[in-house]
Amino acid sequence: MMKKGLLTLIVLVFTSSWAFSQQNAAEWQYVSYPELPFVLDHIHLDLTLESSESLIEGVGSYFITSRKPGLAEVVFNSADMDIQSITFEGNETEYRISSDSLIIQLPDTLQRGNTIEMVISWKSSSSYGIIQDVYGNMWTSLNPKARHHWLPVPDHPEVATTMDASINIPANQEMVFNGILVGDELVSTDKKVLEWSSKIPASVTGLSLAMGDFIRSNARSGIKEVSVYASEKALLPEIRDDLLSIAVSSMKEYERKLSFEFPYESLNIVVLPDNHWEEIQTGAGIIYLYQNLGSLATQLRRGIAEQWFGNFHRYLNAPDNKYEFLKVMLTGTSNIQQLKNPDELQSIYRWNLWEKGFDVLEDDHLKNIIRESLPQLVHQYEGVTDWNEYADFWYDKSGSFWEVLPEFELPESHTEEKYVYGVEYIYDEMASALTLVFEAKGEPIESLANVDVTEFGFTDTSHTEITFTGALDSVEVEISSGIDYLTLKQAYDTDLDIRFEEEKPFMFWIRQLRDPSSKNRIQAAEALQNFTDNPDLQLAIRDVLQDEDDANVRAAMFETLSVLTKDASGTEETFLGNLNSENLSIQLSGLRALANYPKNENVAFQVRNTLLRAERDTVFNAALDTYRQIASVNDLLTAAERLGQNEQGDKKAIKILKVAAPGDTTNTSMMMADRYALGAYPYSIRKQALALLIEFEENEDYWQQTLKILQEDRDPRIRHLSLDAVKYVSLSDRTELLENRAKEELDPRVLNKLKELQQ
């Protein structure tokens, strides 16, 4: 039985997956009280986006009001970008860059309450701030402190502003920004300009844009516009409609629960294939749904909750366990699925924990206090909000200060224990006597177990009930002289879960092949694999096959037939014929059987064709398992090359490489893996290829060159994973590589791993 797991906040934080140990929380956490002697009233942006170069070129007009007398300079944040000029009323001013601070000299001191316009021109293709995937999508990161890698701005949750933007993009693309789309003008055959506006102040940490081959679908929730942007190939129309419906209903539900309307002018939902290691999935009025994280509906409900608790209320230390708790509190746990987490994102990990454990949180008083307080919390706080402010509020209500979340226990596993019993049939045909011997294969049953016995005779069927118990028990069964066979079934009136492994006489199994129940016929077909020495078995199986209509039963019979025939000449034709069946079970049984013909060229040819043409993963996997048994490593690699010529075959080619690599003495598999790891392929393929290289490629010269390339990759996950290969580099070269990369790396998770490897 599974023991209960007591989970506290401390346990949740310190016993998570490896991703948290790699994440430098201090690098991502914002300071509590930044130096902000000015107010950013408004931003007007003129942007040009070039996805082919992952480039944002911009001119920003910033309207700033001094909060103190004699303001002589302002400090923005800027990193990994080219600042081209900073001007006031057309005149350039002096500026300097220190670390990630852009220090700008004002032309004249600005008195308290006075406003000035500042214009900054820049270019950025930052791999930390701008994300580009292999599908042609380009978007900006919402991870903490990522904003100032594509936009010069005071990058802190305390800074909120209105904005409008004029964005120049390719005419065949669509793009998304915060606020409302107010203009769409084609300015040439290949360019258009989109106008966006946000009259409601939004935190600069919630700013984001996305561009791609999107189709836009709209709906309304009251006066709020809701839009879904996704590639036409990515979402079926009915799924797109479902997302719009869920968004509208969730917004209304949360507005009702909170007595507070949706905090932004519109909701823009962007559907993308891959999360790209993005810990933060929502900005101000914008939500990113990633198909590799699982249920889009769950992501959407969570993202809408985050519009209030994460964007309207903003946090200095997101992602954080406590704030995921608030999202679960608002969304509830009905109609919610656990999200997938292939990259071990902490935000998703913590969401899944609370979604799983929320209903068993023992402190109902706490849950009720928090649930009832959510409307008041939303009304009372705006902008940067600290957990202690929440805790103070709850203290006034309850007299208890919840600095950390309370303990909760996950429910015990209620999987019923399965009892396994071998059942030996001692049959005296002359005396028409049958004794069943029940022997426990594991834990025995201590109480009486009831078993329904059905006797099938030539003209009649009869039922009786017997009981047994303990580790070893024998029971005499009354049978007629005309018995054909007998079946056992656990009685319906018992709560026990019992599996019987029966040893029946040969003829009982043969006759059971014509049982009315397909389940019993499959049992008989499988059991007859233990009678391969009986010369009558193959004929009996083929005779029954002529009348069998159930595809699953036929598949089981073919499995038994393959055990009987093995590699006998001519017998392969039966199983080759199965490859053309429309039934999956029969196809699979045929493929498995053909593994018995390793020297048959026709079999190898047909299995290879199935491997190359398989549309179902189950068929491909079965074909690969058979082909690796009957073909050489070179044959496998040739098949992988053939699949790699097809855009849809890369995932299958990687599977073949995994099988071929351990036995490959030609290094062909490593050359193919290199192509996939360094090429423009989806991350899921690159990750597997890189893992193969790290496991099987030990050449130091190769890794000295390849690591430099991989460490400059735009995908931080590739940079992180490739560091596992430094073990193949000499100590001196390794030290130099790690030191140089640590100076240039911007992602705190990769930087943390670099520092650990330097120790």
- Terminal CA distance reads 42 Å
* Proportion of residues in β-strands: 25-35%
Shape annotation: elongated
Helix content: 25-40%
Task: Note down, in words, how this protein is organized.
The structure is a single chain. With 759 residues, the chain is of the alpha+beta class. 37% of the residues lie in helices and 28% in strands. Helix 4 packs parallel to helix 5, helix 18 packs antiparallel against helix 19 (650-660) and helix 24 (731-744) packs antiparallel against helix 25. The model is unreliable at 1-24 (pLDDT under 50).
Topology, please?
Elements (H helix, E strand, L loop, with lengths): L5 E2 L1 H6 L3 H5 L2 H4 L9 E13 L4 E12 L4 E7 L4 E7 L2 E2 L2 E4 L2 E10 L4 E10 L5 E3 L5 E3 L19 E11 L3 E3 L3 E7 L4 E13 L6 E3 L1 E8 L2 E8 L5 H22 L7 E7 L9 E2 L2 E5 L5 H13 L4 E2 L6 H11 L14 H12 L6 H17 L2 E2 L2 H12 L9 E2 L8 E11 L4 E8 L4 E13 L3 E10 L1 E6 L5 E8 L6 E7 L2 H7 L5 H10 L9 H9 L5 H15 L6 H7 L5 H10 L7 H13 L3 H14 L2 H12 L5 H11 L7 H11 L4 H14 L3 H11 L5 H7 L8 H14 L3 H11 L1
Parallel strand pairs: 2-12, 18-19, 19-21, 22-23, 25-31
Antiparallel strand pairs: 1-24, 2-3, 3-9, 4-8, 5-6, 5-9, 7-8, 10-11, 11-16, 12-15, 13-16, 14-15, 17-18, 20-21, 25-26, 26-29, 27-28, 27-30
Helix pairs in contact: 4-5, 5-6, 6-7, 8-9, 11-13, 12-13, 13-15, 14-15, 15-17, 16-17, 18-19, 19-21, 20-21, 21-23, 23-25, 24-25
